[in-house]
Design brief:
Number of domains: 2
Radius of gyration: 22 Å
Helix content: 40-55%
CATH class of the largest domain: Alpha Beta
CATH topology of the largest domain: D-Maltodextrin-Binding Protein, domain 2
Length: about 450
């Protein structure tokens, strides 16, 4: 299971399990207010700030403490306390901690969670902080900054982006007479490669019915075929449009036409790539750090353009300032200094399998020199699509995976599965509006 899955579990638990309770009990701080900070380093009295995060696997547990130690050494009046824990534990502790004024001073959240947290009153409005630190939309990949905006206010600062890419087992391609230096870029060349692989006895792309990574591939294809997941104000689901049906049909046809097994286990497609049983896998940039890949002759490329438009799914993570009861403004100001420093020094974050969101860091030639496998993912950012911004959206998003699973397993046709999922999603969106307003 990929490390990011545990973060999603945290997000879903927090969004679904404590939604109404948080609206009632968050009244800790001044969610409608802002905290003034200086654009330079924090110059106030000595403070200790708490940084809650769920980075307990992979390279992050090694890198985060190193970065924090360096920051603390350079800032004599700030001590950042690293508080790593399982994301599920965070979801259980955060609401009551905020109500009691004992939550973190700074944390990180995914883009599709930000509106939920903001609507629940968990986060401080951060317009003044963002402005003071000199950040704006142009400092990050197009579209990602807006994920932190809810109700006309900015609640977050981007930290990283994680687009999908095409992973290729070069040995498998070569065995089928294909040239690893001429990778498919569109529907025709991708289909040609799949047919050649099939002729050589290889099922070229294994399709799964799980979030990782079937849902991300489906959403990519919906956008490539010119559709969208929801309407503009996120009051209705639209992923059962002609574009959605085309996308899901294209995926199920891979199974129907013998390019994929019919029942792929969670992570089975990536494991098959590593084992030399398949040639292609649509997966996230985080897999570039997978410990199994050094034993494989592999390369990554942008996902092929199957539809009429260039598009690719990407997630994002963002810094957030927490709205504790009686939140100390000095601590928030110190946390802002910490966030700016972390973004400025985020080049090493690529070691964890995520792209730094700050353009100045990510576009530094030294980054690609050290992490050349990141280039295809970076090349996709101009046409990347990020998470839908709307309170409680995680529950509606889950219906997409349900539809995918039903269609992939042959329980329903793509259209029937999507139509049924949209009916459920619209009910959930209506509940979200009643619960969160707007």
């Amino acid at each position: 299971m990929n490390k990011r899955f545990s973060r999603r579990a945290f997000a879903a638990t927090l969004a679904l399990g404590v939604g109404m309770a948080l609206v009632a009990c968050s009244g800790g701080g001044n969610g409608a207010g802002t905290n003034s900070v200086s654009g330079g380093d924090y110059t106030g009295p000595n403070v200790t700030i708490s940084f809650w995060n769920g980075w307990t696997g992979g390279a992050a547990p090694v890198l985060v403490p190193k970065l924090i130690q360096k920051f603390n050494t350079e800032h004599k009046n700030i001590v950042v306390k690293d508080v790593p824990m399982q994301w599920g534990d965070i979801s259980a502790k955060m609401p009551l901690a905020i109500k009691a004024g004992k939550g973190p001073d700074v944390s990180v959240a995914h883009g599709d969670d930000l509106a939920t947290y903001a609507a629940q009153g968990l986060l401080l409005k951060s317009d003044d902080i963002v402005k003071s630190l000199g950040y704006g939309e142009s400092d990050f990949p197009e579209g990602v900054f807006k994920a932190g905006n809810y109700g006309g206010a900015q609640y977050a600062i981007p930290w990283s982006v994680t687009p999908l890419g095409l992973y290729v087992n070069k040995t498998v391609l070569t065995s089928a007479g294909l040239d690893p230096a001429a990778l498919p870029t569109d529907k025709a060349s991708y289909q040609k490669a799949l047919d050649a692989l099939k002729a050589a006895g290889v099922q070229g792309e294994w399709v799964d019915g799980y979030v990782f990574t079937g849902t991300f591939e489906f959403e990519t294809l919906v956008w490539q075929f010119g559709g969208d997941l929801y309407n503009k104000d996120v009051s209705e689901a639209t992923f059962n449009s002609d574009a959605g049906v085309q996308a899901l049909t294209w995926m199920t046809d891979l199974i129907k036409n013998g390019h994929s097994p019919s029942d792929v286990a969670q992570d089975g497609n990536f494991n098959a790539l590593v084992a030399g049983k398949t040639a292609f896998n649509w997966n996230g940039v985080w897999q570039t750090t997978n410990e199994a890949l050094p034993n494989v002759q592999w390369v990554a490329a942008p996902v092929p353009q199957i539809g009429t438009e260039k598009a690719v799914w990407s997630s994002s993570t963002h810094w957030v300032f927490v709205n504790n009861k009686g939140q100390d403004k000095n601590k928030t100001a110190a946390a802002a200094t910490f966030v700016k420093w972390m973004n400025d020094n985020s080049a090493g974050w690529a070691e964890t399998g995520e792209l730094p969101a700050a353009n100045t860091v990510r576009n530094d030639p030294a980054l690609l020199s050290k992490y050349p496998n990141l280039k295809p993912f970076m090349d996709e950012l101009p046409y990347a699509h990020y998470e839908t911004v709307s309170p409680g959206i995680s529950a509606a998003n889950a219906t997409i995976t349900t539809a995918l699973n039903e269609a992939v397993l042959g329980k329903k046709t793509p259209k029937q599965a999507l139509d049924d999922a949209v009916t459920k999603a619209n009910q959930l969106l209506k509940q979200n509006k009643s619960q969160y307003g707007g």
